[in-house]
Amino acid sequence: MRIVLRSVAILGLSLLPALAFAEAAHNNVSGTGGAGISISTSVSGGGSVTQTISISNNVVTNNTGAGVSIDNSATGTGSNINQSVTSQGNTITNNGGAGVSISNSADNGGTSTTSLNSTKDTITNNGGAGVSISNTADTGGTASTTATFKNDTITGNTGGDGISATNDDNAGAGTATASVDLSPGGNTITGNTGHGVSTTATTTTTAGAGNVISGNLTNPQILIVP
Questions:
Q1: DSSP string, 95-149
Q2: 68-124 pLDDT, tens per residue?
Q3: Fewest C-beta in 10 Å: which of 18, 19, 43, 90?
Q4: What is the CB neighbour count within 10 angstroms for residue 25?
Q5: Environment class of residue 163 by beta-carbon count within 10 Å: exposed (0-12), middle (13-18) or buried (19+)?
Q6: Which residues contact 192 (CB under 8 A, 6 or more apart)?
Q7: How far is CA 153 from the centre of its chain?
Q8: What range defines the domain where residue 181 resides?
Q9: Residue 201: which pLDDT band, with cuts at 50, 70 and 90?
Q10: Cis peptide before 220 (omega within 30 of 0)
Q11: What is the total count of domains within the chain?
């Protein structure tokens, strides 16, 4: 079984409700030919989508893509995606891509924003990073992700960092930012093939206390690139 949510707004006309709540809970998602749980939102021409998404107590394993994929795109002045994702108590393991992949892109004046709150998730032995965050903005677009982690276990992912955040603003043509906040504490990030946490320019990184970030194969354990 694969779980897919797609939302599209074009020319200001929402083809799905502009205000949306979606929940994926207590599922066993295994063996699909792509992401286990896929959330895709595309907005253009002044459309607007506000989403509240809950992903809880799922077992997501052995899918060829990411365990959970969140992919947003906003194009055109006034086009806006405002997305809040709560992820709690999930086991995301042995998937071919990242455990959790978040991608926001925006251009020509569009805005795409995601807020992730992850609590008590177990993200292990995936073929990409444990959590991969990517924001890309061009031509006046704004793309941003805020991610907060509490009591998560992110270990043994074989294709990159425990948590990775990258931003690309096309040499200042757009605005791409991220925030990675581990300060709620209780996180264990160990044994990943990259750094424990790796963030690039225009990312705010808060490590805080009460986390175990060690034994990842690439030093430093926390890499912050200015």
A1: -SS-SEEEEEEEETT-EEEEEEEEES-EEES-SS-SEEEEEEEETT-EEEEEEEE
A2: 999 999 999 999 999 999 999 999 999 999 999 999 999 999 999 999 999 999 999
A3: 19
A4: 12
A5: buried
A6: 129, 130, 154, 155, 156, 157, 158, 160, 161, 162, 216, 217
A7: 16
A8: 3-224
A9: confident
A10: yes
A11: 1
C-alpha–C-alpha distance, residues 85 and 115, integer Å: 6
CA atoms within 13 A on the CB side of 142: 10
The residue whose two tokens read 């509240």 is 52
Cβ within 8 Å of residue 172, ≥6 positions away: none
Give the three-state DSSP class for 3: strand
Q: Is 191 helix (H, G, I), strand (E, B) or coil?
A: coil
* The model's pTM: 0.93
Q: What tokens were used for 89? A: 């108590």
Closest Cα partner for 70 from 101, 115, 105? 101
> What is the spatial order of strands in the sheet that 122-124 belongs to?
28-30, 59-61, 91-93, 122-124, 153-155, 188-190, 212-214
